[in-house]
Every structure is written in structure tokens, then in C-alpha cells.
Amino acid sequence: MTRFVTACLLALAGLLAPFATAPASAQAERCPKLVAGSPFLAPPEPRALPAAYLQPREVSLSYIGHSTFLIETVGGVTVATDYNDYARPDVVPRVATMNRAHLTHYSLNPDPGIEYVLKGWREDRDPVHYDMEVGDLWIGNLQTNIRDWEGGTIRNGNSIFVFRAADLCIAHLGHLHHLLTEQDLGALGRIDVVLAPVDGSYTLDVDGMVEVLKKLESPVVIPMHYFNQATLERFLEHFASSKYAIRRENSPTLVLSRASLPTQPTVIVLPGH
């Protein structure tokens, strides 16, 4: 009997070994897929309030314009996405992320007060990888390719930056030019809020972008990178007969928390483009 119990324990240890030895960094690189909340309870809607009103477990997200957002955490960390010389927040962010596509997505002269300038590409086209913590914010990235002006491919020219704070995962798709693979989707894991370029021409076409968003299964989609109202409405038409709700806000700032994530996937339109 003792030999049988010993054998069972050894077998169980063998089954658990891969999980026990998995490095912690492997989990830090992704936001695991979790249920946002009970489908039977309607959560409160994201609050359109200034970031000064942030409470624990909340994140502020403000649309500055084009593809630039200002993310603010309870701990006071500020991030400007696709930081450039044309659309900048009023504050100097602690972190600035950039993408290669063109000058409305990066700056050659970032403000010297920025502590971390994170370029989503390398000049030699080799991969760039971020896995870093700044205060109460974690930042990672997934690289994708972009087209050049002649129709060729620039490998690793774009980064999807992922920001995790207050148990929320926010993904900025950058200047995405192609569909995501199953491997890409697995690496991204659970994304609660996705910031998506919806112009349908300079980035991925509208049908392709809608496919990407539906595969990500994020509770909140926020359109960006559109040049006029007609472009935005063309994108929104794809969700008119789907399970997605559409909500238009009067304020460019949202205060988000896990408790406020909608149980029905929702496209939230913030003023500006």
C-alpha cells in the first residue's frame, strides 16, 4: 500500500512540475483571459470625470487626438501613446510610446522631461521587447509589421503596447496593418480595453479591423485614427447589427475600473479624431 501511495505522489508531482517551474515572467507578459463580471449584474458605466477623482482600482483614459491617449494611474504614472509633435497632452508624461509609421506617431524631439521614451521599433528591424514596471503600471508590447510607401513590408515596424494597471489591461494597436495570428492573440491574452485605428486605409481595412476586434473579445473598444465623421460612421456601421453596443461620450476622459466594464461588448466613441 505504501509503495502504491508513493507511486501516486510521484506521478502527481510529475504532472504539476511544468506549472511549478514556469517562470513568473511568462505570466507578467500577458493579461490572462478572465470574465469581466457576472452577466446577470449590470455594472456601473465608466465615469467621465477628471483624473483627479481617481479612486483605488481605477485608471483614467483621455483621448488627445489622432492616436494619442493620456493614461493616468492612481499612483500618478502618466503615459502618452503614439507621442508626436502634433497632438500632445497638456502635461509632460512620465512615459511616451511611439510607432514608426510616420510623424504623427513619433517625435524626433520628445520633451526632455519624459522619463521613459519607448520606441515601438528598431532601426535595424530586429525585434524590440518591453517588459517593465513604472510605479503601479506594467508596460509590454507585441510587434507587428507595417507597409512602406512602395507597398513593401517593414518588419517589426509597429508595436501593440499593452498597459496593465488596477487589474485592467489596455492595448493600443498603434498603426496596425494586418490581421493578428492565433499566436498573437494568445500572447496578448485578456485585453479589457482596446484602442483601435479605424481609418480603413492607412492602417488595416475596416473589415480586417472588425475581425481583429471581434477576436480580441474586449469589453470596451475605443476608436481612434479617423480623419472625419464619415470615416467613423463607416466603421460603426459594422457593429449596427452585432452584439456590440455603441455609446458616444461628451467628454474625452473616461475613468475605468474592472467593476465598470460593460457585460455587453461596447464601442465607446470619445470626442475628437
TrEMBL record:
Keywords: Signal. Gene3D superfamilies: Ribonuclease Z/Hydroxyacylglutathione hydrolase-like (3.60.15.10). The keyword Kinase does not apply. It comes from the Bacteria. Residues 1-26 form the signal peptide. InterPro entries: RibonucZ/Hydroxyglut_hydro (IPR036866). This is MBL fold metallo-hydrolase. It comes from Ancylobacter mangrovi.
